[in-house]
Specification:
The protein has about 160 residues and is an alpha/beta fold. The protein folds into 2 domains: about 5-45, no CATH class; about 55-150, no CATH class. Helices cover about 30% and strands about 15% of the residues. A hairpin with a 2-residue loop joins β1 (about 5-10) and β2. The chain is elongated, with a radius of gyration of 24 Å. The model is unreliable at about 155-160 (pLDDT under 50).
């Protein structure tokens, strides 16, 4: 079976074949040629063509746990104003009242549904961070089930300011 090998020699990529091969040029360059080949190959083996992953902005790397609804929308507006290619706005830790709290927003955050509507209204997709396997001591789950919370997974480490059970 013929195989291909590629070696970078100085500033050129040299491709060699061990068997019969044909060389073609692509008018848009090597990257477009490889993408075209990948699409062709995927079709030959019955796989779907590859799609580009979304570009995601995540609030954690700017705001950590101190994110507010206003912060999110200021950034969404800035993406549009600066023509930044963001596809998904990920609202990370800090939007909820604590670890494992998927029901109630933090006191200073505001309405999560309204914020997601605002993100969608800008043409972007919204995402939220959840910790389904961690239970904060002040979370709805721990408060409503105090005797059962000892059987729940415990959070460890010091990445957040939240106490956990």
């Amino acid at each position: 079976m013929p195989t291909l090998g590629a070696v970078l020699e100085h500033d050129r990529l040299v491709v060699r074949a061990t068997g019969g091969a044909r060389a073609t040029a692509h008018p848009e360059g090597a990257e477009a040629a490889l993408a075209g080949y990948a699409d062709w190959f995927a079709g030959q083996v019955g796989a779907a063509a590859l799609v580009a992953p979304p570009t995601v902005w995540c609030s954690w790397y700017r705001y950590f746990e101190q994110v507010s609804s206003t912060d999110i929308m200021e950034n969404v507006k800035a993406f549009d104003a600066n023509d930044l290619p963001v596809d998904v706005v990920q609202i990370d830790d800090g939007w909820s009242r604590g670890l494992g709290e998927g029901l109630l927003p933090a006191d200073g955050f505001g309405s999560l549904p309204a914020r997601v509507d605002g993100i969608r209204g800008s043409g972007l997709r919204g995402g939220i961070w959840l910790a389904p396997f961690l239970v904060g001591m002040q979370s709805t789950l721990a408060v409503q089930h105090p005797t059962g919370s000892s059987a729940l997974p415990a959070a460890t480490g010091t990445r957040t300011s939240q106490d956990s059970t």
